[in-house]
C-alpha cells in the first residue's frame, strides 16, 4: 500500500469541507433586511422591552449613524452593507423547556453533530448551558441549582424583564454605546445574549456556558453578554462558537461586558470556531467583537481565548483595572489558515495602585493567512507600582502567511514595571527530525510542537474546553507545513 | 499666515536662488505639490500619534536666513570633536562657513550639496542617488526636497578607507528671531569603502530654531558606514531628522543617536536592505528632562535573505519629559534566514515623565528569527543600596547605574575620542563629576 504522504494529507485537508457546516431547518421568524429606527423599535417591541430599553437602543442607533466604520486594523475585507442584513431572527416555536425531551429533535441533532450533547454535558461536565441559537435562548439547564445559590443566569431579554434594576445599572457601563462603531450597532440591535449575576460572596459551583451559532442565512448575530460578579464572588464563564457553512459573509458583532466588584473574580473563556471561509477565501464570518471587563478593588478578570475560526477577526478583550490591587489577565491562541485574517489582542488599562496584568498571546499562521497581535498597556499617572508582563509569540507555517505585532506601551508613572517581549519563529526541522527519529510521524510531531507552543494558554482553559481546543488546533493546522 | 502657506508662497523667492533648469528642480516641484496636498503631519497620522508639531508650527520662522554671521572658531570650538583630526563641514544658519571647515577633493569628495547640484562632474551621482530612497509620500521629506539647496555631499569612490572621521556641524546664531533650516545631505559610499561620520546640530541662541533635515546614505557592496548623531541642543531648538539608508550586499551600517537635549527631537531612521548578508545597527541613548520630547521612529526593511539587524534604544526620562519609541521591523516574503533583534529599555525617573513605546514586527517570511523586547522600570534599589554601603553617595550611585544602563549602546562607539566626549556629556547631564573611565 502506498504510504500516506504529507502531500496527501495536505490535499485531504484542503478539500476537507468545514465539519460543522450544516444547516438546521427550523422555521425562523426573520425581519426584513435593512436598518432604521423602526426596525430598532420593532426589535425592542418583539422582545417586549420596557420603555427605557427602547430609548437606550434608539440612542445607540443615533450614535451609530454618525459613526464611521473603522479601518485601522490590519485586515482587508469587503465592508458589509448594513442595510443588507436582517437584524432579527428567532426560532419560530419559541419554546421554554423544562427538560430536554421537549426540545425540537432537529435541534438536538444539530448539537450532537457539534459534539455538545446536552445530556452528556448535564451529566458529565456539570455545565449549565444556556443555548443561544440564532439569537434567542431556547434551552437553559441547571437553572434550579443556580437559583438556590441566588445566581441569576438567563438570557438578557429575560433579565430585562425580570431584573431591570440590575440590567439598567450595569448595561453600557463598561462598553458605552458610543464606544466604537460595532458596539454602537450592537447596542441598537442586539437580539439576545446571556446575563449572569453572582451575589455577594457566592462561589459559582459550576462552569457557566453558552454556545453561539449562526444559523439563518443572511442574518447578523448581535449578542450581548453581561456578567456581574458582586463583592467576593467567583464565576467561570465559558463561551464556545461554531457556525454552519455559508457562502456570503456573515457579520457577528457582539459585546461582552464583565463587571467584577470588590474582591470578585471572573474567568471568561472562549473557543471561537466560526466558519472561516473555504480554501479560496470565499465566505466566512466577520467577527467584530467588543469585550471588556472592569475590575474594582482586589478584583480579578481573566480572559482566555482560542480563536481558530472566522474569515476576519477583530477582537480585543480588555481589562480596566480601576480598583487598587486588581489583576487582569489575557491568554490567547489565535490560529489562522488559508485566507483568514485575525487582528486580535488586548488592552490593559492600569488606573489603580498595585495593579497587575499579564498578557500571553500565541499566534499561529498557516496558508495565506495574516495574523496580527495588537495590544495596549497603559499605566496612568496614579497607578503606583503597576506591573505588566507581556509575551507575544508567533509561529509561521509556510512562506505565504504573515505575522504582525503592534504593541502599544504607554507609561506615565515612574514606579511602573512593564516588560514586553515578542518572538517569531517557525517549527524547526531539527525538532521534527528528532520526533521522526523517535518514531513519531511528521503530522503528529507538528501537532505535538504546536501543542507545546500553545500550552501556556491551553492550561488556562477549563478541562472540557481544553480538550475541544486541542482538537480544534489540530483540525485547523494539520498538514499546513510542507 | 500659517507656516504651510508661508512656505508655499516663498517657493517663488526660492526659485530665484537656484538653477531651475535641471532634473532636481522637477523633483522640487513634485515635492512641493505633495507638501501642499498633505501639509504637516498631525496626531491623527499613526506615525505621529504621540508627537505633536503644533507648538513648533506657530512660530514665525524665517525661511531664508541673512548672510553668514561672522563666527569665530573659538566661540564654537567646544562643539567640535577637536582632540582628533577630522574633516569638517560647517554650516552657520544653513549657509556654508568655509573658514570653519576643512573639506577635501583628494581621494574622495566631501563638499557641498549646492556645488554638487550644479557641477557637471557630480551630475551622474546626483542623477543616480538624489532623492532616491527618501519616501516620496512623507510631507516632511517633501518639504525638505522642495527647498533642497544646501547640505553636505560626501562621495567615497571604490576601495577608499577614509583616514579620519568627517564632522558635519550645523550652527544657528540667532541672527533671525526664529529660523527654519532644512539641510539636505547625501552620502554615497562605493564598494569596499569605509567612512565614519559625526553629525551635530547646535543652536547658539535662545531664539527658536527648527531643523528639518534629510540625509540619504547609500552603502554599496561591502561598504562600511559608521554614523553618529549628537543631539544636545538648547531647550529652544527642535530637530526633525530624517535619515534613510540603502544597503547593498555584505555592507555594514551603524547609526548611533545620542539625544540629550532640545525642545522636540524626532528621529525618522529608515534602513532598506537591498542585498544579502547585510548587517544594520541602530542604537540610541536618550537622557532628557524638563519638558523635552524625543521621538525615535525606526524602520528596518528586510527585502533579501540572510541579513541581520540590531536595534537597541535606551531611555532615561526625568521631570515632565516625554519619550517615544516606534520601531518597526518589516520582513518580506523572500527574506528568509533573517535575524532581527529589537530592544527598547526605559527608566522613568519622575512621576510626570511619560514613555510611549510601540515595537512593531511585520513578518511575511517563515524561516526567520525575529524578537523584540521592551521594558519600563526603575533603578534597582538593592544595587543602589550596595553602592551606598560602599561609600558612594546616592547621586553618584544613581549616575553610575544609569551609565551602566546606557553602556550597551556606548560600547559599540568605534571612535574612542567620541566615546569619551559622550561620556562627559552624559556625566554633565546626570549632574555628576564622574569621568566614567572606570
Automatic annotation (TrEMBL), chain A:
Alphabetized NCBIfam families for the sequence: PRK11814.1, sufB
GO terms under biological process: iron-sulfur cluster assembly
Annotated SUPFAM superfamilies: Stabilizer of iron transporter SufD
SUF system FeS cluster assembly SufBD core domain boundaries: 212-453
Source organism, top-level taxon: Bacteria
Domain SUF system FeS cluster assembly SufBD N-terminal, residue spans: 124-204
Descriptive protein name: Fe-S cluster assembly protein SufB
Organism annotation: Mesonia hippocampi
Pfam family name, one: SufBD_N
UniProtKB/TrEMBL annotation, chain B:
Organism: Mesonia hippocampi
Pfam families: SUFBD_core (PF01458), SufBD_N (PF19295)
One annotated GO biological process: iron-sulfur cluster assembly
Domain SUF system FeS cluster assembly SufBD core: start-end pairs: 176-405
InterPro entries xref list: Fe-S_cluster_assembly_SufBD, SUF_FeS_clus_asmbl_SufBD_core, SUF_FeS_clus_asmbl_SufBD_sf, SUF_FeS_clus_asmbl_SufD, SufBD_N
Transmembrane segments: none
UniProt family annotation: Belongs to the iron-sulfur cluster assembly SufBD family.
Protein name as annotated: Fe-S cluster assembly protein SufD
Ranges for domain SUF system FeS cluster assembly SufBD N-terminal: 24-168
Amino acid at each position: 500500500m502506498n504510504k500516506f504522504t504529507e502531500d496527501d494529507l495536505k490535499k485531504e485537508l484542503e478539500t476537507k469541507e468545514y465539519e460543522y457546516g450544516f444547516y438546521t431547518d427550523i422555521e425562523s421568524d426573520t425581519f426584513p433586511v435593512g436598518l432604521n429606527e423602526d426596525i430598532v423599535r420593532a426589535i425592542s417591541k418583539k422582545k417586549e422591552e420596557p420603555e427605557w430599553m427602547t430609548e437606550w437602543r434608539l440612542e445607540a442607533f443615533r450614535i451609530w449613524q454618525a459613526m464611521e466604520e473603522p479601518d485601522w486594523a490590519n485586515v482587508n475585507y469587503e465592508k458589509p452593507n448594513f442595510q443588507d442584513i436582517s437584524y432579527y431572527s428567532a426560532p419560530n416555536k419559541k419554546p421554554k423547556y423544562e427538560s430536554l425531551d421537549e426540545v425540537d429533535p432537529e435541534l438536538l441533532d444539530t448539537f450532537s453533530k457539534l459534539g455538545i450533547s446536552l445530556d452528556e454535558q448535564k451529566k458529565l461536565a456539570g455545565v449549565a448551558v444556556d443555548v443561544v441559537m440564532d439569537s434567542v435562548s431556547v434551552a437553559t439547564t441547571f437553572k434550579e441549582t443556580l437559583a438556590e445559590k441566588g445566581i441569576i443566569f438567563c438570557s438578557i431579554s429575560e433579565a430585562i424583564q425580570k431584573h431591570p434594576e440590575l440590567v439598567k445599572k450595569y448595561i453600557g457601563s463598561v462598553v458605552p454605546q458610543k464606544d466604537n462603531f460595532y458596539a454602537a450597532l450592537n447596542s441598537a440591535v442586539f437580539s439576545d445574549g446571556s446575563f449572569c449575576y453572582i451575589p455577594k460572596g457566592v462561589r459559582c459551583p459550576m462552569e457557566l456556558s453558552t454556545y453561539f451559532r449562526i444559523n439563518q442565512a443572511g442574518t447578523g448575530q448581535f449578542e450581548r453578554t453581561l456578567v456581574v460578579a458582586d463583592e467576593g464572588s467567583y464565576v467561570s464563564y465559558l463561551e464556545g462558537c461554531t457556525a454552519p457553512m455559508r457562502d456570503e459573509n456573515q457579520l457577528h458583532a457582539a459585546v461582552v461586558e464583565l463587571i467584577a466588584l470588590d474582591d470578585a473574580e471572573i474567568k471568561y473563556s472562549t473557543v471561537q470556531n466560526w466558519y472561516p471561509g473555504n480554501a479560496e477565501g470565499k465566505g466566512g464570518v466577520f467577527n467584530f467583537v467588543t469585550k471588556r471587563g472592569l475590575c474594582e478593588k482586589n478584583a480579578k478578570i481573566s480572559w482566555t481565548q482560542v480563536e481558530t475560526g472566522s474569515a476576519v477577526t477583530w477582537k480585543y478583550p480588555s481589562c480596566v483595572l480601576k480598583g487598587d490591587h486588581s489583576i487582569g489577565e489575557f491568554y490567547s491562541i489565535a490560529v489562522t489558515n488559508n485566507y483568514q485574517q485575525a487582528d486580535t489582542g488586548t488592552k490593559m488599562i492600569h488606573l489603580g495602585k498595585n495593579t497587575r496584568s499579564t498578557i500571553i498571546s500565541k499566534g499561529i499562521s498557516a496558508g495565506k493567512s495574516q495574523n496580527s497581535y495588537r495590544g495596549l498597556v497603559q499605566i496612568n499617572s496614579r497607578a503606583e507600582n503597576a506591573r505588566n508582563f507581556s509575551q507575544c509569540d508567533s509561529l509561521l507555517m509556510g512562506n505565504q502567511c504573515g505575522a504582525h505585532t503592534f504593541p502599544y506601551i504607554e507609561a506615565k508613572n515612574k514606579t511602573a514595571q512593564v516588560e514586553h517581549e515578542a518572538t517569531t519563529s517557525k517549527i524547526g526541522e531539527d525538532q521534527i527530525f528528532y520526533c521522526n527519529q523517535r518514531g513519531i510521524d511528521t503530522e503528529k510531531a507538528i501537532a505535538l510542537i504546536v501543542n507545546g507552543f500553545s500550552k501556556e494558554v491551553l492550561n488556562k482553559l477549563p478541562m472540557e474546553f481544553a480538550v475541544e481546543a486541542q482538537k480544534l488546533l489540530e483540525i485547523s493546522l494539520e498538514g499546513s507545513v510542507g | 499666515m500659517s507656516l504651510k502657506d508661508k512656505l508655499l508662497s516663498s517657493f517663488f523667492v526660492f526659485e530665484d536662488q537656484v538653477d531651475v533648469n535641471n532634473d532636481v528642480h522637477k523633483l522640487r516641484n513634485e515635492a512641493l505639490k505633495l507638501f501642499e496636498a498633505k501639509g504637516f503631519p498631525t496626531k491623527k497620522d499613526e506615525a505621529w500619534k504621540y508627537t505633536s508639531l503644533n507648538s513648533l508650527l506657530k512660530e514665525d520662522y524665517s525661511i531664508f536666513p541673512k548672510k553668514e554671521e561672522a563666527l569665530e572658531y573659538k566661540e564654537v570650538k567646544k562643539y567640535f570633536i577637536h582632540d582628533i583630526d577630522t574633516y569638517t563641514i560647517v554650516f552657520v544658519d544653513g549657509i556654508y562657513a568655509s573658514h570653519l571647515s576643512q573639506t577635501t577633493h583628494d581621494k574622495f569628495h566631501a563638499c557641498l550639496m549646492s556645488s554638487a547640484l550644479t557641477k557637471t562632474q557630480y551630475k551622474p551621482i546626483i542623477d543616480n542617488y538624489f532623492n532616491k530612497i527618501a519616501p516620496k509620500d512623507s510631507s516632511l521629506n517633501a518639504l525638505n526636497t522642495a527647498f533642497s539647496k544646501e547640505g553636505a555631499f560626501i562621495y567615497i569612490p571604490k576601495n577608499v578607507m577614509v583616514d579620519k572621521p568627517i564632522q558635519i556641524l550645523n550652527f544657528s546664531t540667532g541672527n533671525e528671531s526664529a529660523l527654519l533650516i532644512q539641510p539636505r545631505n547625501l552620502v554615497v559610499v562605493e564598494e569596499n569603502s569605509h567612512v565614519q561620520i559625526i553629525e551635530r546640530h547646535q543652536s547658539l541662541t535662545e531664539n527658536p530654531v527648527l531643523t528639518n533635515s534629510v540625509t540619504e546614505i547609500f552603502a554599496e557592496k561591502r561598504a562600511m558606514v559608521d554614523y553618529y548623531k549628537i543631539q544636545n541642543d538648547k531647550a529652544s531648538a527642535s530637530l526633525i531628522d530624517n535619515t534613510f539608508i540603502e544597503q547593498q550586499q555584505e555592507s555594514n551600517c551603524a547609526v548611533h543617536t545620542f539625544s540629550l537635549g532640545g525642545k522636540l527631537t524626532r528621529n525618522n531612521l529608515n534602513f532598506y536592505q537591498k542585498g544579502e548578508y547585510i548587517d544594520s545597527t541602530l542604537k540610541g541613548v536618550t537622557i532628557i528632562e524638563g519638558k523635552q520630547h524625543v521621538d525615535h521612529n525606526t524602520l528596518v526593511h528586510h527585502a533579501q535573505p540572510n541579513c541581520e539587524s540590531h536595534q537597541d534604544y535606551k531611555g532615561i526620562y526625568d521631570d515632565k519629559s516625554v519619550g517615544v519609541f516606534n520601531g518597526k521591523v518589516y520582513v518580506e516574503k523572500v527574506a528568509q534566514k533573517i535575524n532581527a533583534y529589537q530592544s527598547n529599555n526605559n527608566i522613568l525617573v519622575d512621576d510626570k515623565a511619560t514613555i510611549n513605546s510601540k515595537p512593531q514586527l511585520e513578518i511575511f517570511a517563515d524561516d526567520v528569527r525575529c524578537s523584540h523586547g521592551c521594558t519600563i522600570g526603575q533603578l534597582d534599589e538593592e544595587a543602589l543600596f550596595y553602592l551606598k554601603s560602599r561609600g558612594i553617595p546616592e547621586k553618584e550611585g544613581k549616575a553610575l547605574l544609569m551609565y551602566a544602563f546606557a553602556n550597551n549602546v556606548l560600547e559599540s562607539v568605534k571612535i574612542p575620542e567620541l566615546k569619551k566626549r559622550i561620556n562627559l556629556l552624559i556625566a554633565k547631564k546626570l549632574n555628576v563629576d564622574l569621568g566614567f573611565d572606570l
